[in-house]
Structure prediction request, 482 residues.
Amino acid sequence: MTNDKYEVVIGLEVHAQLLTKSKLFSGDSISFGADPNTHVSPISLAHPGTLPVLNREVIALAVKLGIALNCNITQHTYFARKNYFYPDLPKGYQTSQDTAPICKGGFLTIQTPNGEKNVKLNRIHIEEDAGKSIHDMFENYTAIDLNRAGTPLLEIVTEPDLSSAQEAFDYITALRKLVRWLDVCDGNMEEGSLRCDANISVRLKGEKKLGTRVEVKNLNSIRNVKKAIEIEVDRLIRIVETGEKVIQETRSFNADNNTTFSLRSKEDADDYRYFPEPDLPPLNITQEYINDIKKTMPDLPAVLQEKYIQTHGLFAYDADRICENKDDANYYEMLAARTGNYKSTANWIIGPIKNYCNENNVGIKDFSVDMEKVAALINFTETGKIHFNVASTKLLLAMIADTAASPESLAVSMNLLQENDIGEIEKWINETLDSMPEKIKEYKSGKKGLIGLFAGQVKKLSKGKADMEAVTKMLEEKLGKG
Ligand code: ADP
Ligand code: MG
Prediction:
């Protein structure tokens, strides 16, 4: 349902599992898919006598993301206990951050049909994950796997600043790209290392007060975030249109039948009785530390894109494709340094190289052909020795099949080199034109389309080896003059 009377308001809470080796407060390993309850030390269970020790790497990753998202880094911060009972929370509280989240404010830029939009962030805080309740393993029991308990997460919370399902989609897409770019999180939503809850409300256009929100959980792909928001917006507008009141509640998305259903109502804020974690000292993050982190950070995709457009002369679309992930951008930089030609390097990466990698499910950094040889191949096409189509299909595949061979030797042995010797080309052209006097007359009386026929004949005589650009040019010259 689309309804012009209403305005949609969305705020997203994204949990990103950090790419550390161990948990937030213990040396327990974090690895996806381990046997249940094999990475659970007494510290993860908060047994009496154990003490948590902060994993420094978590702070570095949080600060890194905070810098990239234009946040203020909170220099005096502390952890707090968020108390609640649940079977998958063996400690009886979650160690989190309450009034002093490590990052405050900030924004993430997305592209919208009306130009760029800076989606405002509320905060980023550090917290530990809970374990996992498994309901479908035993008929009458719930199984608990505590491997995940204590895994470090960042919760990235936006202001209610998104105004459509599409913007939410673009926001998470950009956020996922950024956390991957910075090696903060692997971004795999299907495996749960990036999780999103969407808060949605509608209000009449012009209304200042926010409408009552619902929160939709269990969104395990970016597509589902969009889908769930679309469904919820329709449902909320329908409720408001019939004069009923929206109930503030938590809902779940069922991707099998594209519906949402109520999990629980959420009348008031839960009382978690937060208090500062007595077993961990407060943190003092110095400006020097923040500056040091800044120095280790790679150029962000937006910065590189701008550079590729402004100084390399790439089209915006191509620069965007090259900056899809950091490996592609690195590969582009290294390859361009060898070819000395930005545009053709970008075209080769976006086209044949990425196509091959995608089809064969290999990352570009594992592309098997030596970069020097790829550069030689590109320069080969640039100097007209071989046609791009032939190079990008036949020769590239031959190079992948025989990574020891040089592109030159392969091109020669496969007879792929283009003839651009003007003398040779002229011979074929003369032979062609001599055999078609009638067609030349027709051409001269205006049937300019016949140039294709002449060119085709030259191609045939040369067995496909003539440089067709040179052929067309010479044909035009000869026919024009005569
Ligand atoms: P909690 O879910 O823990 O109660 P918050 O009050 O911090 O937390 O809000 C969570 C998210 O909901 C934030 O992203 C916020 O922007 C968003 N939000 C709050 N109110 C609304 C609303 N009326 N409509 C849409 N989103 C909202
Ligand atoms: Mg919430």
In short: The chain has two domains: 6-288, 422-480. The chain has a mean pLDDT of 93. The longest helix spans residues 222-241.
